Amino acid sequence: MSDEYETKPGVRIPSREDSLPKRFYEAVSVEQAEDGWRVLLDGRAIKTPAKQTVSLPSEALAQLIADEWAVQGERIDAPNMPATRLCFVALDRMAETREATAGEIVKYASTDLLCFRAPEPAELIAAQSAAWDPLLAWAKEELGIELVASTGLLPVDQDAVALTVLHGRVRELDPIRLTALAHATALCGSAVLGFALLAGRIDAEQAFALSTIDEHFQLSQWGEDAEALERLERLKTEMVSVGNVLAAL
Questions:
Q1: I need a labelling partner for 50 at 20 to 30 A (CA). Which of 1, 39, 104, 133 fits?
Q2: Are 25 and 42 in contact, with CB atoms under 8 Å apart?
Q3: pLDDT tens digits for 113-129?
Q4: CA–CA dist 30, 45 (Å, integer)
Q5: pTM (2 decimals)?
């Protein structure tokens, strides 16, 4: 069904598409410059909302963004260009928000999803343990942080040294990886899953599945819920887009 309709003959209610900017270019290409790879619209490099020329660290990432611009129709639908939006945020905002972003990621680690275990039923306890224990072990071995899991709603006080180590690792990241990590961490509710995705320990679909064990268990017990499934599908799409950016770096 169209999102346009008439209240009376000759009077049209504007659709969402009417508010989108018109496509102003024909050809989309990528090229290598001295400072990295660029996406060109009719031969001109794209710029961020803050008017910075977009320079990217890899041809694959430039092509991923170019593909988003190439498939636009008569109007440019920015919300459906996740790789472009992520890189714009990284280039325009991360220099000013780096410390705040690092702090948010560490905050997620202090109440990490993987550390909140259900007291019952046994099936869910087993599913959480089987899925999450290996990731906590990986974080201890590869990241040098040991987070403690607990049962119940109240968070456990995580080791301050572990959180400090994690903060140091976050601060080492370049703007695009830091932005991707922050987005993945927020989507998962888990800094451990965010770092595992960043490191290639898991892929985006695995990160999504690991972060939604509780939701899928509830759906299996109580039956499918259209609204819940729609929300989960949106989260999965967002997670996959972050994974695509990281894979292209």
A1: 104
A2: yes
A3: 999 999 999 999 999 99
A4: 9
A5: 0.89
